[in-house]
Amino acid sequence: MILDLSAALGLLALAPITVNASPAITKNCIELLVPVPVNATNIEYDIPRVYDTISAVNWAVNVTTWSNKNYTERIIQNITISQTFKIHAKLCVPSVSTSKSSTLQILTAGNGFDKRYWDVSVEPSKYNYIDAAISKGYPVLAYDKLGCGKSDKPDGYTMVQVPSEVEVLASLTRIIRSGKLLSVSNILSNIKSTELLNKFNIKPKKVLQIGHSYGSVLIQALLAKYGDELADGAILTGFLVSSQATVNNVAHFDHDYAAESDPSRFGSYGPGYIVLVKATLQKLFFRGTSAGFEKKLLDYTEKIKQPETVGVYGSEGTLSFTPAAGYSGPVMIMAGEFDYPLCNGDCKGAYQADYTMGLFPAGTNNYTFHLVPETGHALTLAKSAAATAQKMLDYLEENKL
Ligand SMILES: *[C@@H]1O[C@H](CO)[C@@H](O)[C@H](O)[C@H]1NC(C)=O
Ligand SMILES: *[C@@H]1O[C@H](CO)[C@@H](O)[C@H](O)[C@H]1NC(C)=O
Ligand SMILES: *[C@@H]1O[C@H](CO)[C@@H](O)[C@H](O)[C@H]1NC(C)=O
Ligand SMILES: *[C@@H]1O[C@H](CO)[C@@H](O)[C@H](O)[C@H]1NC(C)=O
Ligand SMILES: *[C@@H]1O[C@H](CO)[C@@H](O)[C@H](O)[C@H]1NC(C)=O
């Protein structure tokens, strides 16, 4: 108590002397349920039904057995989706007006993660990417992808797939660009001050698409389809094309049936939703032991993990990795040096730079690639997280974003 008081007094006493230092930027956040209208063409596949733990394992074996049909051969028909989904988003704005106040970062997490991948509650000063971006003055919006977190969880076979998730991000970005995010959304936070509420009512001049893993894949597809319309800059983390990328298929990563594995957390998820087991989280996302990650971050990952749909795995076959010819902004690509799912454990020498660069062919792209040392797939959860965030923010600064 005495210590706290003297610390507070110390701060007060120092305040007048530090007038020249830039004021510490803190964040104000609001939670929103955004109605996102989506038109998309998904696919119905002939794949085994998944409704308990036994059928979940059977599905993984069935779709990876070499002599079975591949996903292209399993296509039954197209599914046309024209629907409005409720997407849960957290918008944070810096406490003071900054030179970045009208450059909004949109964060898309990977498969099996919701927005908490970016919003880590363990030692936030080290691991929380939203805090790092806010400290540089950027407003940030992180959202739960369709089928996870507090967003809608529609049919796990046909509704939650790559095409519909790309359109969710596209439609959400259009709403943000139009400046209507706050007016169309259901505001979940209890914010009484009109002055504070107005701080969230922004119409960004620039939008940056930042992703991790499957989220980066969605962004690449978004840029290929919509180009400069929906992004002024992009950072794709946990993303690269490697000669080892197809070595580990879904059967290398153990999934349980979501609703059965933890009814209190995932009881509301229906058929077709699976979730990674803890040992697999370590295998997939982390590198080494003491050098690469802290155990408490593995525990945090287990706590925040989210179900995935079998539909997403099928629809990865729809990814054409079409070059984003209509996107002319800068692109930073980042991956952990020892990424297991992307590089079968070692990205050195496996990275196919020419191919990956070829995905962003527009002349003015300022393409850069960074391999994060001593790090696995989950960049915000590794010991290197703070340095990684710094690299990303430096890149944006250097590119006048
Ligand atoms: C979806 O398609 C309908 C019919 O073509 C159109 O009226 C509507 O604007 C589209 N919605 C979106 C979000 O593109
Ligand atoms: C694999 O799944 C397909 C589609 O459900 C089914 O036709 C086939 O019999 C399954 N094969 C095995 C070996 O379970
Ligand atoms: C799927 O199988 C068909 C027929 O064997 C083959 O032509 C096609 O290339 C395969 N597709 C993929 C993505 O492997
Ligand atoms: C399914 O949709 C794709 C585009 O998403 C289209 O190229 C294809 O022709 C469609 N197939 C059928 C049978 O309608
Ligand atoms: C390209 O990015 C690098 C940082 O990676 C930066 O130093 C450089 O100024 C950028 N070039 C342009 C033309 O913005």
Strand and helix map with partners:
Blueprint: H1 2-14, E1 27-45, H2 53-64, E2 75-94, E3 103-108, H3 124-127, H4 129-135, E4 140-143, H5 162-177, H6 181-184, E5 186-187, H7 194-199, E6 206-212, H8 214-226, E7 233-237, E8 255-257, H9 258-261, H10 263-266, E9 273-276, H11 278-285, H12 295-304, E10 308-309, H13 310-315, E11 331-336, H14 340-343, H15 353-358, E12 367-372, H16 385-398
Parallel strand pairs: 3-4, 3-6, 6-7, 7-11, 11-12
Antiparallel strand pairs: 1-2, 1-5, 2-4, 8-9, 9-10
Helix pairs in contact: 5-8
Bound molecules: 2-acetamido-2-deoxy-beta-D-glucopyranose (5 copies).
Radius of gyration from CA coordinates: 21 Å
Strand order of the largest sheet: 5-1-2-4-3-6-7-11-12
**Judging from the principal axes of the Cα atoms, what is the shape?**
globular
Structural class: alpha/beta
- Low-pLDDT residue intervals, each spanning 5 or more residues: 1-21
Q: Please tally the helical runs, counting DSSP H or I stretches of 4 or more residues.
A: 16
* Associated small molecules: 2-acetamido-2-deoxy-beta-D-glucopyranose
SSE order in H/E notation? HEHEEHHEHHEHEHEEHHEHHEHEHHEH
Strand portion, in percent? 15-25%
User: First CA to last CA: what distance?
Assistant: 44 Å
Question: Count of DSSP E strands?
Answer: 12
Please give the largest β-sheet. Answer: 9 strands, mixed
Mean pLDDT: 92
